[in-house]
Design goal:
Blueprint (H helix, E strand, L loop, with lengths): L2 H7 L5 H11 L10 H13 L4 H7 L10 H18 L4 H8 L4 E2 L2 E2 L15 H5 L24 E4 L2 E5 L20 E5 L2 E4 L5 H11 L12 E4 L8 E4 L22 H15 L3 E2 L3 H9 L52 E7 L22 E5 L15 E5 L7 E3 L2 E3 L6
Parallel strand pairs: 10-13
Antiparallel strand pairs: 1-2, 3-6, 4-5, 6-14, 7-8, 9-14, 10-11, 11-12
Helix pairs in contact: 2-3
Length: 420
């Protein structure tokens, strides 16, 4: 078919479809499996808007591609990236205009991509522009191997819309999703602060010394849960001698504190708030996932495939040199400069547990209305999990006094606009 014939067939997205395409392309809504327009938009996003080109191309289902091949899409993506780099800061919008990407997908145009500000970004251009009032420079990230200090280093996380939970075509490609991760839904999160790392042993030790606090594991020599690898099946059992000070493996001040319960975390936060005259809290589940994804729709903040150079999880290879927990900050940060949200330790959040997301808040707040307030949520997976168990959508539950050498936490705080 000639270029002229192609031009005659090309049409822009109908006005009624543009908003839906826009939301799917940004990961703001999950694609409806029965809506071909949604599926097309999701497929375009999966190989044009992720940085994991090889995986994205290989995962494309050709039955949804009417007039463009996966390889053609990859070439367009590569050329666009090269052109953006050559122009040194020219917006993606202008680059796409320059190339005139008007290739038809099911009779619709990829022109919707012109709405996108950055490759793989889940936040709209208007929202990005609105971030100009955020004082990021007041919350610098620590560099690699920089001492984490005795207080959590807080980062300012921009607000935006995140698709929370397991989205078809994203998380399910990374080993499957748990029933508790459904239904995926868009949440709007306001700017907030979160600690760059999990609270460390050194930071928690300062609290213990100052407050004379006794953790749940230490009370009546109750101990901490660990995996007993000496028994068939490796059952998880309570071991009285395990505590935050002695979790069953080596740790120093740079390691994340573990063997702490949700209740222990709340007591640390109360002390920290009083000590610093700043109101701290656990992040909500929505805030945690928003920060963990770092603006990406992929199963992990770095892409669609688990990688031992990116996180501490089951096995020892690549940068993952630790059989158990690793010191904080040993793996690459996401776009928001947050580290270690995938693997290392499960992290307590504020929300009480619900078996699904049906009825969950969409405003980024913690879901604290529930039938059993003694059950709380943990996020992120841990050092013993497989690849599917460290996805940004992974979640699990635990009672408020549960503790294990797989559990830790990080803190959050409300952001105060200095201009108000």
């Amino acid at each position: 078919m000639s270029q002229k014939d192609n031009d005659q067939d090309q049409t822009l997205i109908a006005k009624d479809d543009k908003e839906q395409w826009y939301k799917v392309l940004h990961g703001e809504i999950a694609p409806d499996a029965d809506n071909k327009n949604h599926i097309n938009a999701a497929k375009i996003r999966s190989y044009l808007l992720t940085r994991d080109e090889v995986t994205a191309v290989n995962s494309v289902d050709d039955e949804y591609l009417d007039t463009i091949s996966a390889e053609e899409a990859r070439v367009i993506y590569r050329r666009t990236v090269e052109e953006a780099k050559r122009r040194g800061g020219t917006s993606w919008r202008n680059v796409f205009k320059t190339y005139g990407v008007g290739i038809l997908i099911g009779g619709l145009s990829v022109y919707a991509l012109l709405l996108t500000y950055g490759v793989g970004n889940r936040t709209s251009e208007s929202e990005l522009a609105d971030h100009s009032h955020l004082n990021f420079s007041d919350y610098p990230a620590l560099n690699e191997n920089e001492n984490v200090g005795t207080l959590p280093n807080m980062l300012l996380i921009p607000g935006g819309v995140t698709n929370k939970g397991c989205s078809k075509g994203w998380d399910d490609l990374a080993g499957g999703c748990r029933p508790t991760e459904f239904p995926p839904h868009a949440v709007t999160v306001e700017p907030f602060l979160i600690s760059q790392h999990e609270v460390t042993y050194g930071q928690f030790r300062k609290f213990i010394a100052a407050a004379k606090y006794i953790t749940d594991a230490e009370r009546e020599n109750r101990g901490c849960v660990h995996e007993d690898t000496t028994k068939p099946g490796g059952p998880f059992v309570m071991k009285p001698e395990l505590t935050w000070e002695s979790p069953g493996y080596y740790q120093d001040d740079s390691y994340p504190v573990t063997c702490v319960s949700w209740s222990d975390a709340q007591n640390y936060i109360a002390w920290l708030s009083k000590e610093t005259k700043t109101s701290y809290r656990l992040p909500s589940e929505s805030e945690w996932e928003h920060a963990a994804r770092g603006g990406k729709a992929t199963a992990y903040h770095w892409g669609s495939v688990a990688n031992n150079n990116q996180a501490n999880y089951s096995g020892e290879s690549g940068k993952d040199l630790w059989k158990f927990a690793s010191p904080v900050g040993q793996f690459p940060a996401n776009k928001f400069s947050v580290q270690d949200t995938s693997g290392n330790l499960w992290e307590w959040v504020q929300d009480c547990w619900h078996d699904t997301y049906d009825g969950a808040p969409v405003d980024g707040s913690a879901w604290e209305v529930c039938n059993n307030n003694s059950q709380k949520v943990r996020r992120g997976g841990s050092w013993d999990m497989n690849a599917a168990g460290i996805r940004s959508a992974i979640r699990s539950k635990g009672a408020i006094h549960d503790r294990s050498n797989l559990y830790g936490f990080r803190v959050a705080s409300d952001w105060q606009n200095p201009n108000k």
